[in-house]
Design a protein that fits this description.
alpha/beta; 7 helices
Length: about 190
């Protein structure tokens, strides 16, 4: 089923599906993403099966308050993050002990965190009061699907929450803030 993400009742529906351990597909400020509750092992295992991979995922948080629950950030790093978030960036940060599933970071000491500049997905995260996985809509080692038509064709049984825009995006810019020298790991839409 396809739902307009900006409608209130659909934000409620997406939130309930995530709470129930379901996978959703959603619009962001960059690419479409697969999402599940990032604290739910079973939901993440389902996503791993669909993606055909077992690798670390990034998470979406709704605010700096939530971000600080999952990642360690100094004043210096927070200052840098305030310049780019919300926006088309993924920040790699040293993780904190939390209720995040171990399947999110696998065996890493870091976690990738996004605060997209896209209000509906932030409202969904806020409503469930926990982070969600963000990963491109594709099978492992295949190109990201960036049109609604292709996504519906490939994943007809997953609920899609969309702004009805095709995504001409190179994804988020990934910046590693986990050591003293900040480093761009992937150049995407965000300019740093």
């Amino acid at each position: 089923m396809i739902y307009e993400i900006e409608k209130y009742q659909n934000i409620d529906l997406a939130s309930q599906l995530l709470i129930d351990g379901k996978i959703i597909i959603y619009s962001t400020d960059t690419l479409y993403g697969f999402g599940v509750d990032a604290t739910n092992d079973i939901a993440i295992e389902r996503l791993n099966k669909i993606k055909g991979r077992l690798q670390p995922y990034s998470i979406i948080v709704d605010s700096f308050i939530m971000l600080k629950k999952y990642a360690q950030i100094s004043e210096n790093i927070e200052g840098e993050l305030q310049k780019i978030l919300p926006g088309p960036f993924t920040a790699i940060l040293n993780k904190k002990d939390s209720d995040l599933s171990k399947l999110v970071t696998v065996n890493l000491s870091t976690v990738g965190v996004r605060i997209p500049n896209f209000k509906p997905i932030l409202q969904i995260v806020n409503k469930i009061n926990r982070p969600i996985i963000t990963t491109s809509v594709n099978y492992h080692k295949q190109s990201s699907l960036n049109t609604l038509e292709l996504i519906v064709e490939e994943f007809p049984n997953i609920s899609i929450f969309t702004d009805y825009k095709n995504k001409a995006s190179s994804g988020s810019t990934i910046i590693d803030f986990s050591s003293r020298l900040f480093k761009i790991l992937r150049q995407g839409d965000g300019i740093y």
